[in-house]
Amino acid sequence: MKAKKILAGILAGMMTFGAYFVDTEAATRDEISAITVKKSGNFKYWNKDAEAITALKNYVRDVTNKRSKDFIPVEDRIAVFDLDGTLICETAPCYFEWMMYLDRALYDDSYIPSDADREYAELVESEIRAGHFPAGKFPKDMDKRQAISQESVFAGMTDAEFEAYVKNFMRKPVEGLSNLRYGESFYLPMVEVVKYLQANEFTVYIVSGTDRPILRILAGDLLKIKPNNIIGTDAEFRAANQGDKDGLDYNFTRDDYLIRGQFIMKNVKENKVLNIAQEIGKQPVLAFGNSSGDSAMLNYTLTGNKHKSLSFMVLCDDTARELGSPSKAANCMKLAQKNGWVTISMRDDFKTIYGDNVKRD
C-alpha cells in the first residue's frame, strides 16, 4: 500500500517487540535522569543571557523567600508542563505516541488491525508526510479520531505488554536527527527547569494530550514525577473476564487481570483545565506549553490566581539543531504577546538541545 511504502522510510529495519540498537551519542536516559539543578547558578544547557531563564530564576527566588510578599507555601507550589514540543521532540516527524501508533497499526507483523484502524492510520501517515504537521493543517477532528483509533489498536493489551511495546519503541531512532532515540529526545534545558523546580519544592505535573500510561513509562521515572502527578488522554481499563458487563455488574476475581480498553477522553485544550481542577484541585502557579492547544492551561494559570504566577511558551524556532517550524513559532509568539506569556526560544535560549553530537540528518 502507498502508506506502507512511505512510512517504510521511517521504520525500515525496525523490529516490533524486539530490541533495536543504534549507535547514539545523545544523553542516555540515565544521564538525563541524573541531571540536577539545585541552585540558580547550576544551569548548564541555557545561554546565560536568556531572558526566559532569568525570569524563572527571579520568580523562584521571590516566591520561595519567606520575607517576600509573594511567598508561596510549599503546598501551593504547583507547576504544570505539556510534553510534546515542551519537554520532548514532537517534530520527528510527529508526536511520539502518533509514531508508535503507526508502528502498531501498519508495521507490527504480530498484529492485524481492523480495516477501519488500518485505513485511518494510513490517512494519518499521509497527512504527516504532506507536511500538515506542525503547521496546523490537520483536519479539525484528527486529534480525537486518531486517539480513538490509537486506543483501539492497543486494546486488549495487559499493562506488561503495553509497557514492553512502549519501551521497545523508545529504543528506535528518531527520524531526521542523528544519534538520537525516541526515548532520549528530551530537551536538556527543559529537563533542567523541571529539576530546578523540584529542588525548590515545587510539585511538577505533566498535563498532556499523550496517552497517560505512555506518559508514565516515557517520562515519569526519568523526570522523577509520580504516576498520580501525570495527567493525559485516557482509555478505559477492564478486567479480562469482564466481557460486556460494566463496573456495576462485575466484580474483579482472583484469577482476573486488567487489560486496556477503548478511548474515553482526549486531554487537550479546555480539557486540560478541567482535568487540572478535578485531579489536582488547585490552580498552578507555573505553566509551560508550546502550542495554541496549551493556551487554556497557560491562561488558567494566570487568571485570578491568588499567588504570583507565570506562564511560558516554548517556540519551535530552531531549524539548525532541531526540526523547527518558523510558521508555528511565529504564531505562538503572537499568542504569547497577546496573553502575557514568557517566550522561550529554542534557537536563542538553548545552549544545546539534545547534546552537541545530535545533528540534523
Textual characterization of the structure:
By secondary structure, the chain is an alpha/beta fold. It has one domain (25-349): HAD superfamily/HAD-like (Rossmann fold). The chain contains 13 helices and seven strands. The protein has helices spanning 2-11, 29-33, 51-63, 96-107, 115-129, 142-154, 159-170, 188-199, 212-220, 270-280, 295-302, 326-339, 346-349; strands at residues 78-81, 203-211, 230-239, 258-265, 286-289, 310-315, 342-345. The protein has a seven-stranded mixed sheet with strand order 4-3-2-1-5-6-7, with helices on both faces. β2, α9 and β3 (230-239) form a beta-alpha-beta unit. α1 (2-11) packs across α5 and α7 (159-170) packs across α9. It is globular, with a radius of gyration of 20 Å.
Secondary structure: elements and pairs:
Layout: H1 2-11, H2 29-33, H3 51-63, E1 78-81, H4 96-107, H5 115-129, H6 142-154, H7 159-170, H8 188-199, E2 203-211, H9 212-220, E3 230-239, E4 258-265, H10 270-280, E5 286-289, H11 295-302, E6 310-315, H12 326-339, E7 342-345, H13 346-349
Parallel strand pairs: 1-2, 1-5, 2-3, 5-6, 6-7
Antiparallel strand pairs: 3-4
